[in-house]
Amino acid sequence: MKRRKHTSEPINPKYFHQKSEDQHTEQGKQKLNYIVVHKPSQLIKTVVTSSKVPTPDIVHSFHAASSIVLDRYYKLANKARRTGVLVNVGDLAAISPSFLESLADSNRRQR
User: Fold this and answer.
1) Residue 106 burial by Cβ neighbours in a 10 Å radius (0-12, 13-18, 19+)
2) Which has the closest alpha carbon to 77: 41, 101, 43, 53?
3) Tens digit of pLDDT per residue, the chain (111 long)?
4) What stretch of H or E contains 76?
């Protein structure tokens, strides 16, 4: 059996050392999915995954999303992409009661 030639560049061992340290410090922290909402337009821009709660700013808000909410969002996003638009927060809230509750909780915290 012939071995294939390895054509990629060698990887710096420091990278692996740093990576393993990062894994140890984040071990035990669960990563959550957050839906990013553009506040002025009320459109969902994207979904991010983070072990820390993202810091909202004047223009964006972040809402924790379960896998069920994400499945529903991705179905809406696929339909919306066909027409070249983004998903509206109201559309997702209409089919996902837990996302609607998340929106209501964030509005209560802001007041």
Assistant:
1) middle
2) 43
3) 444 444 334 433 333 333 334 444 455 678 999 999 999 999 999 999 999 989 989 999 999 999 999 999 999 999 999 999 999 999 999 999 999 998 888 766 665
4) helix 67-83
The whole-angstrom separation of Cα 79 and Cα 92 is: 12
Strands (E), the chain: 32-38, 43-50, 60-65
pTM of the model: 0.70
Q: Which residues sit opposite 63 in a β-bridge? A: 35
Query: What domain range is 58 assigned to?
Result: 31-110
Residue 45, CA distances (Å) to 1, 8, 40 in order: 50, 35, 12
Give a yes or no: residue 13 inside a domain: no
Looking at the 3D structure of the chain, how many domains does it have?
1
Q: Is residue 39 part of a domain?
A: yes
CA angle 30, 33, 37 (to 5 degrees): 145
With respect to residue 9, please indicate whether it lies within any of the assigned structural domains.
no
